[in-house]
Amino acid sequence: MSARVAVLVFPGTNSEDETVRALQAAGLDAALVHWSEPEALARFDAYVLPGGFAYEDRIRAGAVAAHDALMDPVIEAAEAGKFVLGICNGAQMLAEAGLVPGTGPLRRPTAAFAPNASGRFHSVHVHVRLAVEPARVPILGGIAAGTVLPAWASHGDGRLAAPAGELERMARDGHVAFVYADREGRRVPSPSGSALDAAALVNRGGNVLAIMPHPERDAWTFQHLDRTRDRASMLAPSGGATFFRHFARALAGRAA
Amino acid sequence: MTTRAFAVALTIPDNEAFTATETLARLGLGVGRTARADIWLFDVDDPEADALRERIASIETIFNPNKHRLVERPSAAPEPGEVWIAARDEAPATLVGGRAIPGVRAIRRRTGWHLFDHDGRDVPAATLERAVETFLCNPAFQEAIR
User: Fold this and answer.
1) Which of A36, A157, A205, A256 has minimal Cβ neighbours within 10 Å of its Cβ?
2) Residue A116: DSSP 8-state
3) What is the helix, strand, coil percentage profile of chain A, to 5?
4) A86-101: buried (b, 16+ CB within 10 Å) or exposed (e) per residue?
5) CA distance A140 to A252
6) Domain boundaries, chain A
7) Three-state secondary-structure class, residue A35
């Protein structure tokens, strides 16, 4: 039986459908759970917080959602070791909830995905490279060292920010799961001005991952910049699908 | 050089302030109402320059007379019951809305939050402090000015 994955929907979430499709294409039983039904979350094996602008990014990106009742069972599950993945706005929520890097009390953030250094919203195609040992990210089961993935960075608040000591700790303790890279995996500056060129953070246990660029927006060839016009090729999986296949493999490993 | 402070607040319902009130209530704080304002700080050569207010009021990215109120504050510090949230790494700007203002050397922006209890009084200092720590400020990249 496929693992059951809840894709959370807050008012203002906008990437839930493509996230569900990417998860289903990876063989997972994915379903939407809206903010008014937190009691529905208990029956799921894992949780994905998709992109968008939950609560219109009021106060700070991800801040209101991080305190929403829908996050209570997610935080509890993360603490119990269940897999929790946040993409873009979902990543901002995980930082605001204190789940990544997870070096402080819950809901007392020690890091943030802050407004881009440029002060502007960016939507650019990027590559990200796994920057930690694969064993550090059990949430991406079987991912190879140095894996490079394509994705779309599409955010106004994607700049990792934290006090200098906290950044040192994140670098030292392997919390920066992915960095921005070129197609060959060479590290490049982030379009947002992110500290450590960080594209994703992982918690200490490796079961909570917050990634800013969207792998689900590069999960099929038709979403690719250099797509072909051939119909069959356009519907073939592309690099971002790899990300979700590893997530599915991690869940299958737990079920086995 | 002197710093002059201006507050720009909505005269129409402020959904962001409403959401803040709701979230603070969920956190168990006794907050009945929240008022939010954009605080603009201008470092100026001539503190008596009368034209500054009119110039600010003419910059539509700061002030829209159809939905905003513009008030000059008596000092460049928060009022009692209020906290200002600022980005830690904010570099003072010299342009606002793409324009320079004659006599203005630097411009900084904060978000002012004023919390009231259910009787309309300023919340106690301890409540304001807890609101800052639990919600209004992310110390990873922001600072609270009291």
Assistant:
1) A256
2) P
3) 35, 25, 40
4) bbbbbbbbbbbbbbbb
5) 11
6) 4-255
7) coil
The CA distance from A107 to the nearest CA of chain B, in Å, is 7
Of residues A119, A117, A113, A121, the one with CA closest to residue A60 = A113
Q: Measure the CA dihedral A64/A209/B85/B35, to 10°.
A: 0
Give CA separation, A65 vs A95, A125, A229, B22, in Å. 11, 27, 40, 12
Q: How confident is the model at residue A222 (pLDDT cuts 50, 70, 90)?
A: confident
Is ipTM beyond 0.90? Answer: yes
pLDDT digits 0-9 by tens, B113-128: 999 999 999 999 999 9
Q: Which CATH superfamily is domain A4-255 in?
A: Class I glutamine amidotransferase (GATase) domain (3.40.50.880)
| Interchain CB distance below 8 Å, B140 and A114 | yes
Decide: residue B126, CB within 10 A, 0-12 exposed, 13-18 middle, 19+ buried: exposed
Cα A185 to Cα B123: distance, rounded to the nearest angstrom: 53
Two tokens at A105? 């009390």
Rg of chain A over all Cα atoms, to the nearest angstrom: 17
Has this prediction a pTM greater than 0.90?
yes
Catalytic hit among A127, A175, A214, A224: A214
Q: Give the closest-approach CA distance of B134 to chain A in angstroms.
A: 7
Angle at B99 between CA B94 and CA B101, to 5 degrees: 65
3-state DSSP call for residue A218?
helix
Q: Which of B46, B138, B32 is nearest to A61 (CA)?
A: B138
Kindly list the domain boundaries of chain B, sorted by start residue: 2-145
Contact yes or no for A69 and B26 at CB 8 A: yes
Q: Give chain B positions within 8 Å (CB) of A161.
A: 88-89, 140-141
Query: Is residue A122 flagged as an active site residue?
Result: no
Name the token pair of B30: 């006794």
pLDDT at B103: 84
Is A88 a catalytic site residue? yes
